[in-house]
Automatic annotation (TrEMBL):
Name this polypeptide is given: Acyl-CoA thioester hydrolase
SUPFAM superfamilies (UniProt xref): Thioesterase/thiol ester dehydrase-isomerase (SSF54637)
Domain of life: Bacteria
Pfam assignment, any one: 4HBT_2
Source species: Nocardioides humi
Length: 306
């Protein structure tokens, strides 16, 4: 059977760029959301299926691997998407963001996997995929390797850094839940806040830049608009020779139940980065040891690794 992948040409915006003059990691997930919407629309159109009340999906997981920095340009970037798995009550989309040269060679900027689950819009309850939906997805089905399903663990609160997450009205989607992309922003804010607290302990060392190599987010429950901030708890679970791992979770603590329920979990791999060479680097001698000492109980696995 001929392989069919959906292609979406995604325009870039100047506001998508971060301080390294790269597309910010959160914006990639925004691009994937646009490509996903275009793919689902193409599925419905090709199958002759009209949009109906059951046609609602929630993101259960994102697994994002960053391969190369993408800089701003006026030309669109290409996104290919396809269906890598169809299950009883969920389906998985794989994505690749790339630039293709005239000779067919590609520069791949990102690879990602998104797990979506259908639900009943009126009740918010999960449901099974119906036959129409399966038929609509089938032309783009391309069974791949077994899904990785990374295990995201509970964050030990007694060793975690705390960051209050304030939801804004503009963060909400059409279902009145916080849009899946915004979770990446929340975890980014918490991550920057946690790392920022280490500056004083590392003042004797040159400032180290870092970029994301991987970001996995698991959506456990919806976040909705409320006056009180949610709680984000983060630990640096591993410090390697050129990278570190940060694990976080967002909870809905209240006055009656400060611990709260876990609503989302995140695991990111940050790589130390030289903006001049655009390559991963090992920090100068003594930096890693000073970092581990400054973290104290916050680091749960300080053993060196790549």
């Amino acid at each position: 059977m001929r392989r069919v992948r959906h292609r979406y040409d995604c325009p870039l915006r100047w506001g998508d760029i971060d301080q390294l003059n790269h597309v910010n990691n959160v914006k990639y997930v925004d691009y994937l959301q646009e490509a996903r919407g275009a793919l689902l629309h193409a599925c419905r159109t090709a199958a002759g299926v009209e949009h109906h009340h059951n046609d609602a999906y929630v993101v259960r997981r994102h697994e994002v691997t960053f391969r190369a920095p993408l800089r701003f340009r006026f030309q669109s970037v290409a996104i290919e998407s396809w269906v890598s798995e169809i299950r009883t009550a969920s389906f998985t989309l794989d994505h690749e963001i790339f630039e293709e040269q005239p000779d067919g060679t590609r520069t791949v900027y990102l690879r990602a996997r998104t797990v979506l689950a259908p639900f009943v819009l009126e009740t918010g309850m999960p449901r099974r995929l119906d036959e129409q939906e399966r038929n609509a997805l089938a032309p783009y089905a391309e069974p791949g390797e077994e899904r990785s399903r990374p295990v995201l663990v509970d964050v030990p609160r007694d060793r975690a850094a705390h960051y209050p997450v304030q939801v804004r009205f503009s963060d909400l989607d059409i279902y009145r839940h916080v849009n899946n992309v915004k979770y990446f922003e929340y975890f980014q804010e918490a991550r920057i806040g946690s790392i920022g607290r280490l500056r004083e302990a590392l003042r004797d060392f040159p400032r180290m830049m870092s970029v994301l190599a991987r970001s996995d987010v698991e959506y456990v429950g919806p976040i909705v608009l409320r006056p009180r901030p949610y709680d984000c708890w983060s630990v640096i679970s591993h410090v390697g020779t050129k990278s570190m791992v940060i694990e976080s979770e967002i909870t809905d603590g209240t006055d009656r139940s400060p611990e709260g329920r876990v609503l989302a979990r995140s695991r990111v791999v940050l790589v130390f980065f030289d903006p001049e060479t655009q390559r991963a680097v090992a920090p100068v001698a003594g930096f890693r040891e000073a970092l581990v000492e400054a973290l104290g109980d916050m680091v749960t696995s300080p053993a060196a690794a790549g």
